[in-house]
Specification:
CATH topology: Porin
Number of strands: 17
Strand content: over 45%
Order of helices and strands: HHEEEEEEEEEEEEEEEEE
Helix content: 10-25%
Number of domains: 1
Strand order of the largest sheet: 1-2-3-5-6-7-8-10-11-15-16-17
Distance between the termini: 42 Å
Number of helices: 2
CATH architecture: Beta Barrel
Amino acid sequence: MRHCAIALILALMLGASMGAGVARADNATAAPVLSQSDLVKQANAPISSLFQIRLQDSYAPAFQGALRGQGNFFSIAIGMPLPQYRFLPFPQLSLLTIPAAVTLPLPLPLGTQTGLGDIRFVDLAILDPGHSLLFGIGPTFVFPTASDVTSGQGKWQAGPAAAAAFAPRNWLFGVLAQNPISFAGDTTRPQANALFLQPFIAYQLGHGWFVRTEPQMIFDWETNKQQLPIDLGVGRVFKIGPQYVNSFVEPAWNVSADGPSPRYAITFGFALLYPNFWGSRPR
């Protein structure tokens, strides 16, 4: 089952790459260069029209509930925008998230366990009504690729996803919501049905600097438990040679008492940004 999930992920990535190649071949002119303000805004949205590769590490020094010890979550996320009319008459924004290393504390005296997590994929068709507003709707999927029972849910999942963003002047406001629901997988594992709510706010300070908050809230409909972090971070979009990068640090505190979950954590993020990777849209 895990091999089927990995094969499906590779097929999705290949399809996105083929779509990108066709888009590039159909275009003879370069895409308009983004302003620094637009670049900072899109770099701080969970899903955006920038092709980007994000490396993110969240370190949790303490857990609450049945778990005692330290945890760490390292993930690789690939943002894959697709041009209009490739698959739908709307631009599409896709995000593939690969939890590359999930370290969780186990009940004493077992210590900790590290493994690959469940891969997530979301794809949104984008509507642009103007006035600095964007809306998106589409599906979200979770693939049971975890290498250990403690680092994944063991369930194939699918469900709805939606996003909205408002970007006036130096501000960025928005939310990304996903609710995957299990439909197959390990029958000995609990059913999965949870809302992942990701509000995001960023304010630009100038010269690429910004402050941001992007808490990842979880509302589990099966257990009626929730995770409600509060966070505030700072970062900067800048260039290393010709390469645009985004780097930030963001501490968080979980105000919910439901466990097992991190009591507090600190997230470090680093992303490679490619503003003109796809070229201009076909005419």
